[in-house]
Amino acid sequence: MALVLHDTLTRKKEPFVPLSPPAVRMYNCGPTVYSAAHIGNFRAFLFADVLRRWLEVSGYRVTQVMNITDVGHARDDDPDFGEDKLQAAAAKERLDPWKVAEKYTQLFLQDLDALGIQRPQHQPRATQYVPQMIAIIQRLVAAGHAYVAGHEVYYSVPSFPAYGRLSGNTGADLLAGARVEVREEKRDPRDFALWKSDPRHVMQWDSPWGKGFPGWHIECSAMSRACLGDGTLDIHTGGEDNVFPHHECEIAQSEGAFGVPFVRHWLHARFLQVEGTKMSKSLGNLYTVDQLAQMGHPPVAVRFALIRSHYRQVLNFTFDGLRQAAADVRRLRLFAAELQDAAAGAAPPAAPPAFVADAVAKFDAGMDDDLNLSAALDGVFTLLNEANRLRARGADAAAALAALRRFDRVLGVLEQAPRSLDAEVEALIARRNAARAARDFAAADAIRAQLASRGIELLDGKDGVKWRRAVQA
Q1: Does the residue 15 lie in any domain?
Q2: Domain-embedded: residue 416
Q3: pLDDT tens-digit profile of 308-364?
Q4: Do 341 and 437 reside in the same domain of the chain?
Q5: How many Å apart are CA 378 and CA 281, to the nearest integer?
Q6: Within-domain flag for 191
Q7: Gap between the Cα atoms of 418 and 6, Å rounded
Q8: Are both 439 and 407 inside the same structural domain?
Q9: Secondary structure of 44-84 in the HEC alphabet?
């Protein structure tokens, strides 16, 4: 089965066909760094990570760009001229906006690493690409898609008849749904700002229209082109809140300026709820990775909890679900350790045994069906259950371990396989056995504790003492 992805623009699953296979150019909308990112934000970033991982497992060569919006953008009550989020955070924290942006950029990068999200090859910051934004705005003005109003520049939505196709918003809908008072300098209420002027704004740049700062939407049009080159992008992703107006405006800007389709495949992750309730600051449920870690929930469990449901379904994040995710990660890590022991250095056979081939087929079919990780995980746990039922050893265990590691190239939840016990630890186990035989239980308990400090669990049974590495999540 070839990979199919649900395209937001066509509203159906489409075969994934990049322009220049095996190369894939992918742009993912990143964070606005005015505060710590929360788990709702990270659902979209983890979705992009899983997508990239599966593309790479499938043989594609992915160039990924995830931007950092360090200029800020307006609040939702006025998409063009509301209070800037970065500037508001700077006033609250009594820092200049540049320092606020750097503070939360570094925190975001730490959270990416904690969650096992692969760093994109390019992470452009909006403040580094203002000249490119100005150049695109000039092209839009020259092409008749934008107009100058004093020291500001607006995109003329009526000049781009396709505006609204991505979100399904028609011209009449947009006019009827206008949420803010129409500004006199706009020719049409739907027009949006490309360049803004406000002397109170701290972050400003020189431009042909005077000092000012870019609109939110133009930033991604400039950064995607600067980092991924000319022509149509293969994939653009984001959260469902990005569909309108942000991605709708990106299409209008990029296609209006350069005259070619902007993106082949548009993909969007749905919202996250917490315990069945909408996430909001007032409810205190905008949990960050660090807050959850302080509550005893490791980032790898957060990762597994956020990726295991289909990205196009609203995910209800619960603490019971988070604890179950942690238990499943421990189970998979223990399974990997047991397979390594059972393989005892054996190589996988040329043709995998049937139980491994069946599990791989289930996993691949799920992933190729619009990244249906819920279905793909059935293959993972089928492998676990069948390997245990068959007591796989030697080459069969090696084949199962190879499959599990391949699965984890997408899941990203396994630790590096543990090394064999060295002679020193083997000697400690022998000393403990001797102490128990001599009924010196205090010494035996002390050796058990010493081994536990090294991550070794001892399992005493009727067949003797067995050991395993302690598995945590």
Answers
A1: no
A2: no
A3: 999 999 999 999 999 999 999 999 999 999 999 999 889 999 999 999 999 999 999
A4: no
A5: 36
A6: yes
A7: 39
A8: no
A9: HHHHHHHHHHHHHHCCCEEEEEECEECCCCECCCCCCCCCE
